[in-house]
Design a protein that fits this description.
The protein is mostly helical. Helices cover about 75% and strands about 0% of the residues. It has 13 helices and two strands. Strands 1-2 form a two-stranded antiparallel ribbon. The termini are close together.
């Protein structure tokens, strides 16, 4: 499908608006989930952890590169006719709307799963070819990440329980909490958070192309803008801290939290080495479960693990269907208006 000049202005504007809304939603959703665990014991001030998280998101591309972001832009669908901007407009718009709808109805969801499904569906709706094998690999790694978090969390929990108590232990735990949360923020930015960079990069490329600029926008400016919008979205989540299902999984103690943060960082950074996007929230939940299991299975409130399974069962196929329908509709609108 080739587009005439008349469609080159509205498309990048629409994509930029959708991308901004998506980054804001990631801040409110992902940022909120991380902050819930970070301030569970009020050992860290909310403003401080918010700033650390925002700074990590902004600095990640310079520190870790964008391998995970490229999975979203280059490896999820074949795009021989240059449909990437249309696929992202349809896919990101569908994923954003789906997450907002499911959240409003109280149905557990995942932004990462919604985006993976919606991009694949949008590609199919717009005539591109989803990379089914690559998508299957990404999903398999996504399933494995929480279980990796369980294993690492369990091992760390065993080690933590063998550390003898001393008078200086509370101070050491506080230092460990700060270091563990900082590492978790960097791990999120290096993997799960890169879906934001993928979306914004496609939007900025479409914009510069439409405006006739040959030079690409410096990645530092893009990173800063994403960090600011993400932080603003996270501020919204500060009001609902404590309502998440992640912390309801266990009656968490400080060493549970530290173990979970380190475990999720290991699982997520390991996936980043292969460019595989995984959910930090689900990996953190796995780490909490693993740490709690060192004290027996009754320490885990298993009923609160159901939302993770619901997110997989509902979000992924719903995202695919929504993306497919929006993709079909977008192509139909462009054909109707003579843009194709």
């Amino acid at each position: 499908m080739r587009r005439k000049a008349g469609g080159l202005v509205l498309l990048p504007v629409s994509l930029l608006c959708v991308a901004t809304a998506f980054v804001f939603l990631c801040g409110a959703n992902d940022g909120g989930a991380l902050l819930v665990v970070a301030v569970a014991h009020r050992a860290r001030a909310r403003v401080a952890v918010l700033l650390v998280l925002g700074a990590a998101v902004a600095a990640a591309p310079m520190l870790f590169g964008l391998a995970v972001a490229r999975t979203f832009t280059d490896r999820l669908f074949a795009d021989p006719e240059g449909h990437a901007d249309l696929v992202f407009l349809a896919g990101v718009g569908a994923a954003t709307g789906l997450v907002l709808h499911l959240t409003a109805r109280g149905i557990p969801t995942s932004i990462t799963l919604a985006l993976l499904g919606a991009l694949s569906g949008a590609a199919l709706g717009l005539g591109a070819t989803p990379a089914w094998r690559q998508l299957a690999v990404v999903l398999a790694v996504g399933v494995a990440a929480p279980f990796c978090g369980v294993l690492v969390g369990y091992l760390l929990g065993l080690a933590a329980r063998r550390i003898p108590g001393t008078a200086s232990m509370p101070a050491r735990v506080r230092v460990a909490q700060v270091l563990a949360f900082t590492g978790q923020c960097l791990a999120y930015a290096a993997n799960d958070g890169q879906k934001m960079f993928a979306v914004v990069a496609v939007a900025m490329t479409a914009t510069t192309t439409a405006l006739g600029y040959a030079a690409a926008v410096p990645i530092g400016w893009i990173s800063l803008a994403i960090g600011v919008v993400f932080t603003v979205g996270s501020v919204v989540s500060l009001r609902r801290i404590g309502r998440g299902a992640t912390t309801a999984l266990v009656a968490a103690r400080p060493w549970h939290v530290v173990s979970a943060e380190v475990a999720s960082s290991v699982a997520v950074l390991g996936s980043s080495m292969f460019g595989m996007p995984v959910s930090m929230t689900q990996s953190t939940a796995g780490g909490l479960v693993g740490a709690a299991l060192t004290q027996g299975r009754t320490r885990v409130r298993w009923q609160f693990s159901v939302p993770m399974f619901v997110a997989w069962v509902v979000t992924l196929p719903a995202g695919f269907g929504a993306g497919f329908l929006v993709g079909l509709g977008l192509e139909g609108v462009m054909l109707w208006n003579g843009v194709a």
